[in-house]
Amino acid sequence: MFKEFKEFILTGNVIDFAVAVILAGAVGMVVNGFVADIIMPVVGQFSGGMDFAQMRHILTPAVGVEGEAGYVAENAIRYGKWINSIINLLIVGFVLFMIVKAYNKTKAPEAEAAPAAPAGPSDNDLLGEIRDLLKK
Q1: Is 76 helix (H, G, I), strand (E, B) or coil?
Q2: In this predicted structure, what is the pLDDT of residue 84?
Q3: Which CATH number does the domain housing residue 56 bear?
Q4: Which of 8, 37, 90, 96 could serve as a FRET partner for 28 with CA atoms 20 to 30 Å apart?
């Protein structure tokens, strides 16, 4: 069982997949940073200087002072963070679409398969013709 696992884990596909996952995580951090630090402030500016991340509906307000005894944290529905996530998804999806579109343009078009040559007579047909010629 260990030998089978070793063979499985050392195949090229598994290693390629592991590298792809690590790179995807790194690219994800870069894209999330771009969206959170560059795009969202611009979106907030166009929406009247609003910071979506701070938008929430308070169900129960905080009681007391944070760090002191008897403090109860605020209970709120933070829909602004959800709006940020949706905008993030749309931007990431658009960026990926543009990357794939550019990649597809760089790929050489596949040559169309040449039409198959017309099938000639089979071996049996040729042998039959030779037999007929020998009879004459």
Answers
A1: strand
A2: 81
A3: 1.10.1200.120
A4: 8
